[in-house]
Design brief:
155 residues; alpha/beta; Ribose 5-phosphate Isomerase B, Chain: A; 5-stranded parallel beta sheet
Length: 155
């Protein structure tokens, strides 16, 4: 089973809570980075914490939820080594892993419901990078990442 970092903003608090329970019941180790209530928070702060923890290798996967999924994925993708995929459906979740080797998955509380969110998470975690014709593209993404990485930062 996987080790998963999870976080949300206030718009997705209830969805995140449900996903934490779902993941734990499925046997995954989950660390909740917040938020821990419906009180307003700035989603970039939480996205940054989760993305950095996953980029450092502390977790195999990360899940971020917010109202649309856009702000979280944009913020997470600022972290070198992170490939954040916004997934609204099972196919997108599978392709995020199989085609781009993404170890991060982001969803949106105002776009999909909790039942579908569970199915999307399940599909994402079950998929593996397929390599093949995607491998050279992923290598190019990694090269771009290294090219624009700030001097002195870890790979």
């Amino acid at each position: 089973m996987a080790t998963i970092a999870i976080g949300c903003d206030d718009a997705a608090f209830h969805l995140k809570q449900r996903l934490v329970e779902f993941l734990a019941e499925s046997g995954h180790e989950v660390k909740d980075f917040g938020c821990h209530s419906e009180d307003p928070v700035d989603y970039p702060d939480i996205a940054l914490e989760v993305a950095q923890a996953v980029a450092r290798g502390e977790f195999e996967s990360g899940i971020l939820t917010c109202g649309t999924g856009l702000g979280m994925s944009i913020t997470a993708n600022k972290i070198p080594g992170v490939r954040a995929a916004q997934c609204h459906d099972v196919y997108s979740a599978e392709r995020a892993r199989r085609g781009s080797g993404s170890a991060r998955r982001w969803t949106c509380a105002r776009v999909i419901g909790p039942g579908l969110a569970e199915k999307v998470v399940e599909a994402f975690l079950a998929a593996d990078f397929q390599g093949g014709t995607s491998a050279p593209k992923v290598s190019k993404m990694n090269a771009i990442d290294k090219r624009f990485r700030a001097p002195g930062t870890a790979e």
